[in-house]
Amino acid sequence: MKKTLHAFLLFSLCSPAAAGPFDQLRSGAELPAAPEPALESRTSLDYLQSDTRYWITAPAWDKYDRTALLDAGLDIIETGKYAVSGLIEKRDLDQLAAKGFIVRSRQTMQEYAASHLKDFPAADAVYHNYKETADLLQKLAADNPAETSLFSIGKSLEGRDIWCLRINPAEKGETPSSRPAAFFMGNHHAREHLTNEVALGLASYLLAHKGEPEVKKFLETLDIYIAPLTNPDGAEYDIQTGKYRWHRKNTRVNSDKSIGVDLNRNYDSLWCQAGASHSPAADTYCGPSAFSEPETRVIKRFVEARKNIKTLMSYHSYSSLLLYPWAGKDVPVENARDRKVFEAMAKGMVAFTGYTPEQSSDLYVATGDTTDWAYSTAGIFAFTTELEGTTFYPGAAIVDKAVSKNVKAAVYMLGVTDDPYKLAR
Predict the structure, then answer these.
(1) pTM (2 decimals)?
(2) Residue 414 covered by a domain
(3) Regarding beta strands 53-59 and 105-108, do their DSSP bridges make them parallel or antiparallel, or are they unpaired?
(4) If I label 319, which of 75, 194, 287, 393 is the partner at 20 to 30 A Cα–Cα?
């Protein structure tokens, strides 16, 4: 389909906590547009009649109730003071009462989609699908050959390359580096397309401003990796018919013929204990074993081969949160010095985004998480950003705003990647 819309990264970044070069972040860099998806209107959602999930709201008084609901198969998407809402398979929903849970309200998937797409813009061409993501990364690399290299870090289940843009003038491709490294990832979860845009926006920003003092310093001293689309099969599956499927997982066909494993429950960090489901149909299905999925094995190999990675950001949506370990344990990070770094770095980043910083398990306990694995395995200061919004499909208008805020936060992270422990001194 002919491209019809272009998005501009408009960084008018005025944060009360900003100082020095952070006050000056700006960009007129143009991003190529994705084809306009042929989204159904809210009155034409018949394709969801066969979807067996329900959107429910259930009382939850604390993180222990929330974790218990996760264990029962609920994919918690929204949290209130005394209740949570999310998606659950009918078979798991039918068991909730027997497990002592109360369901306050429920909607079929079709009813939920209708209510959440009512204000959705007709054209969402700002978002990049798999091909356009690869094309943009290739263009950024071709336009900045001295500073970048582009390579595949491995293949997805369906054989798609998982592309990574490396920003490092000194070492290219998979050449090892002694420079401190930062790793940014998007789209672990298929329906969270805004995360891909934030990662692409960060790459575009850094290269558009490579001559400015702060970014130039990063290029001279750091090793920066950006993999915007780490679940390419799931992201394509979510949009392949032009009708959003609210799909979270990858595209493995499970034993019960359901589709997908939750990649952010598939890491070997207390795998498939609290906050993950053994039910293949559940959105939080942990898979048959830790690292059973090619996508998580790709990340495992990538991280383990790069001992210089000091910081990691995994973008998700939505909740306006900044989360740090532990996710899978209901205790603070045991190392007091590391805990101080996590807390200080989180505080520094949310000064730019306005998000809420907290230990992941303060929301609920969820095992098999990317950031827990990265920290426990390699000592990486790893974070999850839950981007802003009120739906997985917030439309085009949110993109510039979300990119702008999170580029500022990413630049802050890059500013401490050389020595994160300076935040604890």
Answers:
(1) 0.85
(2) yes
(3) antiparallel
(4) 287
